[in-house]
Specification:
There is one protein chain. The protein is of the alpha/beta class. The chain has six helices and ten strands; from the N terminus they run βαββαβαβαβαβαβββ. It has two domains: 121 residues, Rossmann fold (3-Layer(aba) Sandwich), CATH 3.40.50.620; 100 residues, no CATH class. Strands 1, 2, 3, 4, 5 and 6 form a six-stranded mixed beta sheet that branches. It has a four-stranded antiparallel beta sheet with strand order 8-7-10-9, covered by helices on one side. Strand 1, helix 1 and strand 2 form a beta-alpha-beta unit. The longest helix has 16 residues. It starts with a strand and ends with a strand.
């Protein structure tokens, strides 16, 4: 099989893309890797603690690598990513798998960075209808919780809620069922890829005004502009 590493955010799209890849058996997933903000020890935008992502990887049963960023600039991200990818390429890895669905700008950005080191991107969910993906994700027994919401679309009420059929039905018409436009981010804690569910505690809800710059690797925001984000504190 073709050797690949998986770009793991900890959210539902990552989980479902990994599920699809493992089922298809075209790629050998050698490891998961996640970009972590070194200052806060959390996943950028998602706000999920590093140790929760590590627990996910342990419960999936795959090696897990962390790629730290401090400044949050694209230059830093690209430099660190190139060094990491070259290490993986030396081990025979030729492909990187992502859970993106339809953001053309983000895919082009990823593919351009991969081309610099002679690697290729794989997108198992690409261009699939997001309402069907949401329904299939839930029907296959995955469980996830909203860890972050953009106040351009959602708010305090939705953050910390479970991602269920009823929740998807309740979303406003301008919100993508998978949150592909950045409306929300999630933490997947159970499903067929996990040996056992990831146990976690749900804490307080926190509002943070948006910073002047987006995290490295984040696509340009289209549509309504967020003034801030709601986060639900999750811990082991």
């Amino acid at each position: 099989m073709k050797k690949a590493i998986f770009c793991w955010s900890g959210g539902k799209d990552s989980a479902f893309a990994l599920y699809k890849v493992l089922q298809q058996k075209e790629y050998s997933v050698e490891a998961l890797f996640t970009t972590i903000n070194e200052n806060f020890k959390r996943v950028s935008m998602h706000g999920v603690r590093e140790e929760l992502i590590e627990r996910q990887a342990n419960n999936i049963g795959l090696p897990w690598y962390k790629m730290y960023v401090r400044e949050g600039s694209n230059a830093e991200y690209e430099k660190n990513m190139e060094a990491f990818l070259l290490e993986q390429k030396a081990k025979g890895v030729e492909y990187v798998i992502f859970g993106d669905i339809f953001l053309e700008d983000l895919r082009a950005y990823r593919d351009n960075n991969l081309a610099k080191v002679g690697m290729k991107g794989v997108y198992p969910l690409w261009k699939q209808e997001t309402k069907e993906l949401a329904d299939s994700f839930i029907a296959n027994g995955f469980q996830t919780i909203l860890c972050c919401t953009s106040d351009a679309y959602l708010g305090e009420k939705e953050v910390g809620e479970l991602y269920t059929t009823d929740f998807v039905k309740s979303l406003p018409t301008n919100v993508d069922p998978c949150g592909e436009n950045g409306e929300f981010h999630s933490f997947c804690f159970a499903g067929p890829i996990f040996k056992e569910p990831v146990k976690f505690a749900k804490g307080e809800k926190i509002y943070k005004p948006i910073e002047t710059k987006l995290p490295a690797g984040h696509p340009p925001i289209k549509g309504p502009m967020a003034k801030g984000f709601w986060f639900c504190e999750l811990s082991l």
